[in-house]
Design goal:
It is built from three helices and eleven strands. It is mainly beta.
Length: about 190
C-alpha cells in the first residue's frame, strides 16, 4: 500500500487544512458575542460588546397595556376584623371603637404602558402612596404612608380585578401595631 500513502494527507496537517478552510470563510464576518437581556438572547459584534455600548442590545418590545392612563375611584372604610385562634387574647384589638381613620376618601392611580401602577390614596386613611402592577387583568399594589411619622399612619394592599372598563378592588390597611384595621371596596374607572 505504499502507492496509496500519497493520497492521504499526514495526520498532523489534515486538521490544520480543515481549520484553515473554515477560518477563511468566517473571516468575512465580524466575530460576535451573545448578549442576554431578560429572556432575549441576541448576537452583537464582539467589538460593540467589549466597548460596553448599550445601543446594540435589543430589548423585547413590551405590549402596551389597554388600561394605561389615569384611573380614579372613591372608598368608604369599615372597621376590619382580626381573626385570631381560640384562646389568643390581644387587648389592643378590642380597644378599636371604629372612629379613627374611618370614613370616605379617594384613590387616584396612573397605569403606565408596561402595567406599572403608581398613585395616591387620600381621605380618612391619611395620605398613602400606591406602588404596584396591573398584569393579566389583576391589580396588585402596596400602600405605604406618605407621612410615616403622621397620626396613625396606615399600611396595606389594594387588590383588584379588571372587569370591562372598571377595576373592582379591595383595600385593606392597618396601623403600625395592628390596633386599627380598615377595609373598603373601591371601584376605579378611567379618568381620561
Amino acid at each position: 500500500m505504499a502507492g496509496e500513502s500519497h493520497l492521504r494527507p499526514a495526520r498532523g496537517i489534515a486538521p490544520l487544512v480543515i481549520a484553515g478552510c473554515f477560518g477563511a470563510l468566517s473571516c468575512q464576518q465580524e466575530p460576535t458575542t451573545k448578549t442576554t437581556s431578560g429572556s432575549l438572547t441576541t448576537s452583537v459584534p464582539a467589538a460593540t460588546a467589549a466597548a460596553g455600548t448599550t445601543s446594540a442590545v435589543v430589548k423585547p418590545s413590551q405590549p402596551r397595556s389597554p388600561h394605561a392612563g389615569p384611573w380614579t375611584g372613591s372608598y368608604e372604610t369599615a372597621q376590619g376584623k382580626v381573626d385570631v385562634p381560640a384562646g389568643v387574647s390581644y387587648p389592643t384589638w378590642t380597644k378599636d371603637d371604629g372612629t379613627l381613620n374611618n370614613g370616605k376618601g379617594t384613590v387616584a392611580l396612573t397605569i403606565a404602558a408596561d402595567g406599572v401602577v403608581s398613585g395616591r390614596v387620600t381621605g380618612a386613611l391619611g395620605a398613602l402612596t400606591v406602588a404596584g402592577v396591573l398584569e393579566s387583568g389583576w391589580l396588585r399594589a402596596g400602600l405605604t404612608p406618605a407621612e410615616p411619622e403622621g397620626n396613625n399612619p396606615m399600611t396595606g394592599v389594594l387588590l383588584g380585578e379588571v372587569k370591562g372598563d372598571q377595576i373592582t378592588a379591595q383595600l385593606r390597611v392597618a396601623n403600625h401595631d395592628g390596633s386599627l384595621v380598615r377595609k373598603a371596596k373601591v371601584a376605579l374607572e378611567p379618568s381620561r
